[in-house]
Design brief:
Strand order of the largest sheet: 1-2-3-4-5-6-7
Number of helices: 8
Order of helices and strands: EHEHEHEHHEHEHEH
Structural class: alpha/beta
CATH superfamily: Glycoside hydrolase/deacetylase
Distance between the termini: 11 Å
Helix content: 40-55%
Largest sheet: 7 strands, parallel, barrel
């Protein structure tokens, strides 16, 4: 089974277009942690140009913290925020005839919702309401997000991270700690091969804001393509 490379995009003003050519899936920031009307349209146009599959990348509303801080938000408020973000992406996507096939929470929301079933249900139901019942939800291999997606009838893609370090228990090394972000393309490639061959993931992430992201993504995509051919 093919393992897809997904890249978080639409977040930085100097983003390299090569990332869209390398990604199978672009997770597009839609205003919560980054992104505005112009950047969203730009990202969608690049997806169309390179044949990249597009997805929504909603988050806590926290531009100052880039969505990487856990916030105290009720499930009801969070659901409204995710609906708003997905709708902000869906309108120009429809105008440009770019299907939105995926959705993946960003940053702290990804981890908070996966530990909290009410938050997970809020995120999943908001995504389903805007993007429909066939959107593929990207998230951790197990936890509340996967269960919420199952309950909602959404297809689910289990994710691993090529450019993030892991602790012995398999969780990610917290950002800011040594080894949290992997910038060595060779190590990222080794991670990609190990994870893809392990049979526990369907998609691998490279973060668009990782230093040297293009080189890292190129190595990871080459590794995945080689595995697909073998």
């Amino acid at each position: 089974m093919e393992c897809l490379l997904n890249i978080d995009l639409g977040e930085l003003p100097d983003e390299d277009e090569q990332l869209y050519a390398l990604a199978h899936v672009a997770n597009i920031a839609c205003g919560g942690h980054a992104g505005d009307e112009a950047s969203i349209r730009h990202a969608l146009e690049r997806c169309a140009r390179h044949g990249t599959r597009a997805g929504a990348h909603p988050s806590y509303v926290d531009r100052e913290g880039f969505g990487r801080r856990a916030l105290e938000v009720t499930a009801e408020v969070l659901r409204s925020q995710i609906i708003e973000q997905c709708a902000r992406l869906a309108a120009p996507a429809k105008a440009l005839n770019v299907p939105l096939e995926f959705a993946k929470p960003h940053g702290a929301l990804y981890h908070s919702a996966n530990r909290d079933p009410p938050l997970a249900r809020a995120v999943v139901s908001a995504v389903r309401e805007v993007l429909g019942p066939r959107v593929i939800f990207i998230g951790p291999g197990s936890g509340a997000l996967r269960e919420a997606a199952r309950e909602a009838g959404l297809p689910y893609a289990r994710e691993g991270f090529a450019d993030r370090g892991t602790l012995p228990d398999g969780t990610l090394v917290p950002r800011g700690q040594p080894g949290a972000v992997i910038t060595d393309p060779r190590v990222a490639k080794e991670n990609a091969v190990r994870l893809a061959q392990g049979g526990t993931i369907d998609t691998l992430c490279v973060h668009g804001d990782t230093p040297g992201a293009v080189t890292v993504a190129r190595e990871v995509r080459a590794a995945l393509d080689a595995l697909e051919r073998s």
